[in-house]
Amino acid sequence: MEDCGEHEGTSELKLGTTIIAVEFDGGVVMGSDSRVSAKEAVVNRVMNKLSQVHDKIYCALSGSAADAQTMAEIINYHLDVHSIEVGEDPLVHSAATLVKNMSYKYKEELSAHLIVGGWDRKAGGQVYATLNGILTRQPFAVGGSGSFYIYGYVDAEYKADMSREECQEFVINSLSLAMGRDGSSGGVAYLVTIDSETVEEKCILPAELPTFYDPDTIES
Amino acid sequence: DGEVIYDGRINCRLQLGSFRLCDVSQSGNMAAMMQFPSNVSTFNNYNDLYPDWTQREVSTGTTIMAVEFDGGVVIGADSRTTTGAYIANRVTDKLTPIHDRIFCCRSGSAADTQAIADVVTYQLGFHREELMAGIIVAGWDRRRGGQVYTVPVGGMMSRQPVSVGGSGSSYIYGYVDSNFKEGMNREECVNFTASAVSLAMERDGSSGGVIRLAVISEGSVERRVILGNQLPKFSTV
C-alpha cells in the first residue's frame, strides 16, 4: 500500500494567521490578515478569514484552513436550523456554544481555532474565544500564530469603553504590527464591524496600513 | 489549573505551557462554570497552530531588553530563574557587567557572561540548540556613545537601536515596534523598557519577579529595581 499522506508536492494548508475581535458598546469589530500558506509558499494572499455564519454573527478562522472553513460551514448550517426552530435570530452565545462543542468533541482531529463575534438583541456586542474547547466571553480576543507578537501591545493599548472608531483603529494597528513580525501573516487586512443596524465589511490594502518603527532598516 | 475561593467565584488562570493565555473569573453555580476541559495545559497536538517554541522544553525563560538613547543605553531584565516549574531564584540579576560601561543581558542558560561579545558569539554557535534568544550586549564608549548589539542564536551580531530577547520577548514585539521612537531621552527610555518588560512578564510564565534596570552613560552606571507592586499597570492585566 502506498502512503497516501503528505509527500513531495503536497502539504496541508495553514491559516498561519492573526485574528482579533473587540467589543464596543453596541457592537463588535473583527479583523484578520489574508495569508494562507502551505509550508513556505503563500497559496492565497487575499483570503478573507472572517466568515459569516449568520446575519450578525461572524467567525474569525485560524489554524488548519480546511478544518476552520468546514467548522464555519457546519456552524452556519446549525445556526440556520436553530434560528428557524426558535423563530428569531440566534444569540451569539449560541453560535459560540456550537463552535465550542465541536472544538471540544473533535479536539484530537481538528486543529483550528475560531473566535466568534457578533451582535444580538439580548446582550449586544459580544466576543467569545473557543480555543481548545473552552468557551469564554472576553472584551477582546486575539488568535493565530501572529497573535503572540502583539500580546504586549494589546495588553498595553486596550482600554475599556472604546468607541467604534477607536476599536477599528485598535484592530488595524494590531493586525499591522502582527503582520510585520509573523511570517505566516500578511497580505491585506479585512475588517468587519457589526452593530444593531449594519454589518460593514472593509478591506485595507498593504499600502494603507499604518507603519511602525522598524529597527532592522537602520544601517549600523 | 483552577481554584475555588469561598465566595463562590472561580478564578482560573489558563496557561498553555509557559504562556499565560488569560485569567477567567466567574461566579454562578458550579455546573455552569466547568465549560472547559480540565487538561487544557497539555498542548502537544496543535503543532501547526502555534509557533514551535511554545512547546519546547526550554528553561531559558527570560525577558531582556536594551534601548539606545543619546548619551547612553538603558537595559532591563526580569528576575526569574526556573528549573522546570520551580522558581529557583525570583530575584536573579541577569544584567552582568563585563566591563565598566559594558553589560551583558543574560538569557537563561547562556551563563558564561564574563567573556566579551565575540567569545560569547562562538559559544552561542556551539550551544545553539539550547539557546532561544542569545545575548544582548549594551554599553557606552567614548567613540560611538551608547550602543546596543544583539547576538541571537547562531552567532550573528548586529547593532540595533532597540533589542529584545528571551522567551518573553515574542509577546512584546508589537508593543516595542509601535512605541519606540527615535530620540527618546533617558527617562523616556527607562519607562519604555520598564513597561515592555512588565508586559512580557505578565504573559510569559517563565519571566517574572522584579524588573532590574541599568542606565549606562559616560558619567555612571545607575542600577534600579522596580518591585512587583510598583510595576507599570495596564488595564487588561
From TrEMBL, chain A:
- Cellular compartments annotated: Cytoplasm; Nucleus
Q: Which reaction does it catalyse?
A: Cleavage of peptide bonds with very broad specificity
Coiled coil regions in record = none
Cited InterPro entries: Ntn_hydrolases_N (IPR029055), Pept_T1A_subB (IPR000243), Proteasome_bsu_CS (IPR016050), Proteasome_sua/b (IPR001353), Proteasome_suB-type (IPR023333)
* Residues forming the catalytic site: T17 (nucleophile)
What biological function has been recorded for the protein in this entry? The proteasome is a multicatalytic proteinase complex which is characterized by its ability to cleave peptides with Arg, Phe, Tyr, Leu, and Glu adjacent to the leaving group at neutral or slightly basic pH. The proteasome has an ATP-dependent proteolytic activity. This subunit is involved in antigen processing to generate class I binding peptides.
> What name is this protein filed under?
Proteasome subunit beta
- Biological source species: Danionella cerebrum
Q: Species lineage, top-down?
A: Eukaryota, Metazoa, Chordata, Craniata, Vertebrata
Automatic annotation (TrEMBL), chain B:
What domain of life is recorded for the organism?
A: Eukaryota
The organism's taxonomy opens as: Eukaryota, Metazoa, Chordata, Craniata, Vertebrata
Q: Which organism is it from?
A: Danionella cerebrum
Keyword field contains Cytoplasm: yes
What are its GO biological-process terms? proteolysis involved in protein catabolic process
Instruction: Please name the GO terms that the record assigns under molecular function.
Output: peptidase activity
Q: What is this protein called?
A: Proteasome subunit beta
Subunit: Component of the proteasome complex.
A GO-annotated cellular component: cytoplasm
Provide the function of this protein: Component of the proteasome, a multicatalytic proteinase complex which is characterized by its ability to cleave peptides with Arg, Phe, Tyr, Leu, and Glu adjacent to the leaving group at neutral or slightly basic pH. The proteasome has an ATP-dependent proteolytic activity.
Where would you find this protein in the cell? Cytoplasm; Nucleus
